[in-house]
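Section 4.2 – Deliverable D4.2 (structural model, holo form)

The reporting period included a commitment to supply a predicted holo structure for the target in complex with LMY7XDAE. Inputs used:
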Amino acid sequence: MQKATLIIQCPDQKGIVAVVSDFLYKHHGNILEIDQHVDQELGLFFMRACWELDSFGLDKSAIQEVFEQEIGLRFKMDFQLYFNDRKPRMAIFVSKLSHCLFDILSRYYAGQFEVEIPLIISNHRDLKRVVEAFRIPFHYIPMDKANKSAIEDKQIALLEENHVDFIVLARYMQILSGDFIKKYPNRIINIHHSFLPAFVGAKPYHAAYQRGVKIIGATAHYVTEELDAGPIIEQDVSRVRHHNTVADLVQMGQDIEKVVLSKAIKYHLEHKVHAIGNKTVIFY
Ligand SMILES: Nc1nc2c(c(=O)[nH]1)N[C@@H](CN(C=O)c1ccc(C(=O)N[C@@H](CCC(=O)O)C(=O)O)cc1)CN2
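Output (structure tokens):
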């Protein structure tokens, strides 16, 4: 079934839900999903609407302009339209750890993600065979801190050549520059192995063990220049017992990371995540 998804952000006022649903009804659209949220502090309105295209009265190519003229301009809307006949293109960055990569690839192989994976980039060779077993191009680009911008230029060139829409850092252990991130704003998803904002940075499980925590967790967030400080998309936790070792925490944590990251990817793929400043609205 051909579907369209409309994402709206605009100043809040009465009547928006009515005019949008009337627009879809007037043009014979059958609404499949619709959700909205008002951020009262910011006075902002958010909506996600998904409808069947098959019997819709407007041609796909005309919807943007007609909606803009009939509603968008009047309500000062920022809006985006997406159609499910084009799968988003996701690049994955990895280093040495394989658990998140395996989880993503197994879900991809099982058809859980409506996505294309044109390439996987790594600063280590360790996961080359895993990636190539899934018949996905693997690009080994070792990090050279003295030439970080040149390395990132190579990565960006590959991403642009492959028309990548968004990037997943699946335990990629290199800090991205602000210039890199500016090219993919709120389109780089990282899995951090702690329940942020606790234990940012490297080795959070070791820090958690030393702190004697009773809960550990994982956080999927959009990447910003400040490390592990971007808009949170999904989190989960697990209880820690007094007899758990660091190795136990790492194993328990990795199981949480996989589920949290896969949920974040799915929400992003379905256009359910809306970043507002450093927070998110998620239309589950
Ligand atoms: N600009 C950003 N880049 C990255 C983020 C981010 O939030 N903003 N998240 C990290 C992932 N990460 C924790 O989740 C993380 C990765 C790497 C490091 C780190 O200290 N790396 C060292 C090198 C380590 C190595 O070579 O093994 C470094 O870059 O100097 C901390 C946290 C991904 N990137």
